[in-house]
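Email to the structure team, subject: ABC transporter domain-containing protein model.

Hi all, the expression group asked for a predicted structure before they design truncation constructs. Nothing fancy, just the tokens so they can compare against earlier work. One-line instruction: predict ABC transporter domain-containing protein, return tokens.
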Amino acid sequence: MEYILAFLSLFLYRYVRLVVNLWAYHRHKPITPSCTSKLTSKDVTVVIPSVDGHGVRLIHTLQSILQNRPQKVVLVTIEKNHMKAEEMIKSLQSLQATVKVISVHKPNKRKQMAAGIQEVTTKITVFADDDVMWTDSLLQWILSPFEKTARTGAVGTCQRVQRNPARSISQSVFRFLGALYIERRNFDCAATVHIDGVVPCISGRTAAYRTSILQDQNFIQGFCNETWGGNELDPDDDNFLTRWMVSQGWDIHIQCHPDALVSTILEDNPNFLKQCLRWARSNWRSNLRSMFVERFIWRRHPYSTYAVYLTTLSPPALVGDAALIWLCNKATEDLMLRHWLLGLLVVWMFISKFIKFLGYFQRHPSDIILLPISILFGYMHGAIKLYAACTLHVTRWGSRERSDGTGKEETPRNQANKKHLVCNWKKYTHFLWRLLILPIHAQTVAWPAGNIRLQLHCFGLGVCVLADRTLNVMIPLKNGQMLNRMNDLGGTLLSYRDICIFVLLQVLDMGSLTAAIRIFLLLPLEDYWIKKLKVGSFERIMALSGDFHENNDPNASADLISEAGGFEYQMAAIFLQLGPLLLDALLALSTIYYLETRAAFCFIVVVVFYFCVQNLGPQEDLQRQRFHSLKREKSVVCQSVLNWATVSYFNGFKCEKARLAEAVDIRLDYKKKSAIHSMFKTTMETSGFAAGFVGACVATARGVTHGDRPIGGLFAMLTYWTRLSEPLKFTVQQIGTLREQAVKMEPFIEIFEKTPTVVDPEDAPSATINSGDIYFDCVDFSYDGQRPIFKDFSFKIGSGQTIVIVGATGSGKSTLIKLLLRQYSPQSGTIQIDGKDISGVRMETVRENIALAPQHPGFFIYSITDNIRYANPKATDEDVHEACRLAAIHDQILKYPDRYDTVMRADKLSGGERRRLAIARAFIKNAPLLILDEPTNDLDNETAAQIQHNMLRRTRGQTTIVISHDINLMKDADKIIVIDSGKVVEEGNHQTLMLRQGHYYKLYTARCYPKSV
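Reply from the structure team: attached below.
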């Protein structure tokens, strides 16, 4: 009876609030704006505290706020960013309200908010974070509760996380967790407001207050000087505001309506975890102070007190759920429906974990697949709350390090402690990454979306896994039952039915049938995974921008794509070995607990010991170092072979041999260390498993000898433990391989997480080029953000003009081409073709309209015809021949043995031949814009003159950009643009620039009379 009472008490304690909140949430109605409202947007001042005081997010925030037409917006930043904020405000066009920038000396959100309050002269003050987006009618909805009752002191808003495209799997997961956090907050706040007229905490992202409350000197004094443990509190501003409203007898209302919606963003991994930690600390401090120091909430809002008490002092979800299941098991031991009741409890617990989020999953049904991650994170959040309770003395913002208002210099010791904590935090978040993110990434890649046949294969594999798990449970139990029956019958023979069942189970246990089915189902999936990963990684790498390709070894990228094989083995290991092993462990715990409680304890100890040993020491680091040492060895070999000519020129064979020997020694050393570490761990795991087995046998045997358990229970436990040892031992043997495969998967994950720095806007139109005029307007660009290549770079090319761009080496001529082709984007300014900014159109259509003959052309190992036709697949053989005639290479090709079918190899062609083939390839594209980079380099004078003549005839009426120092090309150009130090210093035709005797004059005379110069 005591177990029943304990179970009912705990169940009601945990779930009465949920049921009441469900009722209240669906009863809660927002207060709609009135047409005769006396309060308007002109009675509102918006205060925005911001550390940076500028940036794209803040601009979007301001634009959405200004659409609501408040009387005034006060942006409060810090002194060093004041000028940037002023410049940003000036850049905003057609401001619909007064925007004032003020600043404080040091970043401190509370002091920034207090400074903003002093600037308010309206009846209502709205605090808004610098990363929110308002709806157009937000102010109308946020003002209506103030008019309904004079006791309303504050109004909160309904919030959602902005659903921007995620750049990585981790961002998708943490965005999902953040969205559920906000969804849960909306649910709880709406429910408590409906019941009690107050919320546990009104969110600081956007909330409105009566200005008279905020300008009370007692409020400002308490708000700016609140402390905890002697430390000044910078965070917890929204908690203080909520407690102040309660203490002064004001009501709080929440407007839950799509027109009162505030979109916001949350931090990404690992900052999301830091943000959760900061929220947990804030809730601990505020709730404890509210309940046990101020105690106003007890008298006026009993239900909110109950809600705050539950969220603060209840045990973690993992402990509470485990206690409920254990009490239910104990309370129903003598009932026939015991298993049904336990199942109903588990189903109810599962429903309770997502019922608050039904609205979210209705809006985003594809995210339902991430629900298990939410449940696991809910359990893990208990550890975050516990850690937060132990670190309440930390009063910084946690995830907002720049907002520390103390102004104190850190000592070397503090810096060392901080560095140590950061390292530990990184290890912790890396563990969470392994635990949560990698399975989701694997699932995302592995699931054959859109292929019903392969989805059925996955379903069949799942059925096979469940069938094997069922056999693992049934066979030991059935063997034990048969032994008990034989013992009860005095050793007489069993019935034919029992014998047939026994034989059938043993035949199925051989695994040949399910193994054959698994192989049949798995083979098409493995082919799908290999193709998807190779093609997907190729597509992702080729879609990355110029910064990736110019800063990474192309051979390494090619090897990465080629070595995509092996992913299928990891998928099979995860879903057919590790996944079933987890099910086996859970079933084993339940079954062994049913057979003998003490044996179940031994099993738990063994499993915990097993996982501790698996994560003992630097095994994964060794595997990673071994993998990278193998890559270094391969790189040494490739570089030496590819640069054989250079090695022979400088007689460097001995040096290359020594480099390779050193790389091989390093790899073998890591291999040895990894093998020794793996053997040590295997020994420990086997010993621990054996010790647990002995303990379980002793515990079960004692129960049999004392008559508490039948002898069949001992036999079943022995059988089950033996069966379970095989997959565990197999995992121990394969764990090294799995770790190695996981390390090899890291580069693939990194590739799939990378995002191009140059992307098309959503629904970008295609580029249509008619006239072909080009305009660089105040372009600033730098590769590394430090050394500027272009600064306020501007020039214009008219339709059909041929211009020559000249300048010293390193002046940015080739960079200009990359910007035109959108391989990079400028930091500021615009590049326009036909009056349209190319950053606003699809980049593939921009590139379709540009033909380029680069300074260092690249060719495929195809025939000459295929290489030239690569620029225009629809070109005929005659078109190819004509392009080669214009490039003065046709006669040379006819001298080759296979003529146009000759397979091109770069090392077999001279520099002049490569140059002319590149020009032919550009000509055959017949694009509106033609770019030739040093077209006459490596050519003799006669050939250069012929190409120049053909080029002038071919490009008449076509916008052409030539980068060259060829004197003849300069003379014939419509316009010459001279670049120096990232700026256009001169432009005009040859005669005009020569008369000026400036930069062009010096370059020209240096080419004509090098000795005199």
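The chain has 38 helices and 21 strands. The CA atoms of residues 178 and 266 lie 6 Å apart. Ping us if the truncation boundaries need rechecking.
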